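can u pls check wat happens w/ adenosine-5'-diphosphate
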Amino acid sequence: MKDIVRLLPDSVANQIAAGEVVQRPASVVKELIENSVDAGATSIQIILKNFGKTLIQVIDNGKGMSPMDARMSFERHATSKIASADDLFNIHTLGFRGEALPSIASVAEVEMKSRREEDELGTLIRIVASELKEQEEIATSKGTNISVKNLFFNIPVRRKFLKSDTTELRNITNEFLRVALTYPDIAFSLSNNGTELYNLSKNNLRQRIVNIFGKNINSKLISIDSVTELITIKGFICHPQFAKKTYGEQYFFVNNRFMKHNFFHKAIMEAFSGLIAADAIPSYFLYFTVDPKMIDVNIHPTKTEIKFENERDFFQILLSVVKEALGKYNVMPSIDFDRDGDFGYVETSDNPNYSPKVDVNRNYTPFNYSTGISYRDSGFEHPKPDKVPANWESLFEGLTEKQESEQLVMPEMLASNSPFLQLRGKYIVTPVHSGLMFINQKRAHERILFEQYLKNLTDQKIGGQKCMFPETVELSPDDFSLVQELRDDLEFLGFELSEFGKSCFAIYSTPPNFSYSKAKDILVHLIDYYKTTEGNIRTEMKARLALSLAKAAAIPYGYVLDIKAMSEMVDDLFACQNHNFTEDGKAILYILKFEDINTWF
Ligand code: ADP
Ligand code: MG
C-alpha cells in the first residue's frame, strides 16, 4: 500500500491559518494596523471601500521593507520580530508569529508597495490567493502601502457569512479605536467609500479620547495615575453620572495591547456600585503596565482575553484605585481635572455639577397633556373599538377551564368597574377573577408602544411631535454615520433631523409620546441600544427600532397615573398581541392567586 501522509501545500496551510487569523474585514484591518505600528509609523491611514469588503488599504510611513523582505513577509512563519525562542519572553511588538500577511494573501488579492528610507526605489508585489503574480521596482514614498482587495473572493461561503455593512464597519471601527486609543502619538485616519470617519492627529491621551468620543466627554474624565510595585494603572474613568446603559466605552489595555477582562471589569463595577443605577455601565480607559512575566505571553494574536498571574491582587488594587479617584472627585466636585489640552468650552450639561436626575413631577400624568391631547390621541392608529371590549369578560367568554387556569396565558376577567390602585408609582394593582393582578406600568407601556411603533413602521409614516426648541446632539463619527444610515427609518418614526456641523445633528421633531424625555437622550439611547444588538435584516431593525423607541418613550417609574389613565393603559395592554412579556422578555404582570392568599390565613 502506498504511503498516504503528505504535507499540505502552502496555499492550503495558509488558508487554514487564515480561518483563525482572518475572520472578517476587521481582522485584516487589525493585523495591518498592528504591522504599521510595529514598523514605527507615526501616521497610519486606512481607506475602505464597501466596508472593507472590496478594499482595505493601509498606508504608513514606517520603516518599510527591502524587496527581499517584502517577498519574505508573505511566507509562513516569516517574521522580523523574533529570532529565537528566548525572544518570546521579551516581545515588544504586536505581531510576532509571521502569520498575518500569508493568511490574508491566501484569501484575497494583495498589492503591496514598500520602500525603506535608505533605498531609492521601492518594491511592488502582487499576490492573489497565495500566488505571486508580480514583483517589480517602483517609485513610492517611504513606508508601506498595502491594499487587500476582494477579501474571501476565493472562499464564497466565508464571503456569504459576512454580516451587514453596519456590523462589519462597526467591527472595523472597534479594532481601529482599540489601536488608536493605545497610540495617541500616532496620527490615524479612517475612511469608507470616500467618507472620512476619523481623522485623529497626534495627541496626548485625553485629547485622543476627546477626538474620538466628542468634546462632551472631556469634562467627564477623571484621571487615574497609580504606581505600585505590581502594576501601574494610568488613564481615565468617566464620572458616574454619565454611565451609560450599554457597553461601548470600556477599555482595558495591558502593556499597550487592548484586552477584555471580565474580572477586572467587575472590580470597576464594584467601585462604582451605589453611585450608578444597577443597570448602568461606567466608561473607562485604563492602561496597565505589568512585568510581561505576569501575563501569558504566548497569547493568540486574535484573542483579546489575557490571563494574569496575580489576578486577585490586581483586582484589589484596581478597586481601591478607582474608588479613591471617585472619592477624590466627590469631595472636590468642581475641581478642574488635570486638563492637558485646550478645552475651555464646556457645555452646561457637561458641568460636573450637573445632575441628570429626572425631575419627577408627582402630579404629572403623561396621559393628560396640557394641550388636551390624551394618551390615546398621540398620533398613533388606535385599536379599533371592536377590539377593545368594554370589559374583559366578553373577550374571554368560551375559554376552556385549562386556558383560564394558565397564569400568564390569558388576561383575567376584569369587572367593568374594577378599581385601580397605583403602588409607589410603579405597579398598577387591580382585582381579577382569580386573585389580584399586579402590572408593571413601565413595562406595560413599553409593550403597548412597541406594538404601536412596530405597526406604524410597517404601515405608514408617524407624524412627529415638534420640539419646542430644536436640540443639537454631537456624536462620534461612528454614531454619526450610523444615524445617517438609519435616517430614513428615523424620519419614518417621526424624527426630523438635519446635519449640523461635522458630526452633529439638530433635532426638530421626535416621535410622539416623548414629551417628558429630551430629544437628544432619545436619539442617543436609540443609537446605543441599536449598536449593542446584532443582526442585519431590515425588518429586524424595525422591530429593534420600535423596541428602542418604546423603551425610551415608556413612562418612567414614579409617574403618577390617575384612574382613567390606568384603566386606559390596562385596556391597551390587553389589546396587545402579547401582554405577558415585554419584547425583550421581561414579565409585565403577575397574578397573586386567591388560593395563595387563602393559605396565609
Ligand atoms: P508578524 O507581524 O507576526 O511578524 P506578519 O505576517 O504580520 O507577521 O508580517 C510579517 C513581516 O512583514 C513582519 O515581521 C515585518 O517584518 C514585515 N512587515 C509587515 N508589515 C509591515 C509594514 N507595514 N512595514 C514594515 N514591515 C512590515
Ligand atoms: Mg503582524
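The mean pLDDT is 78.
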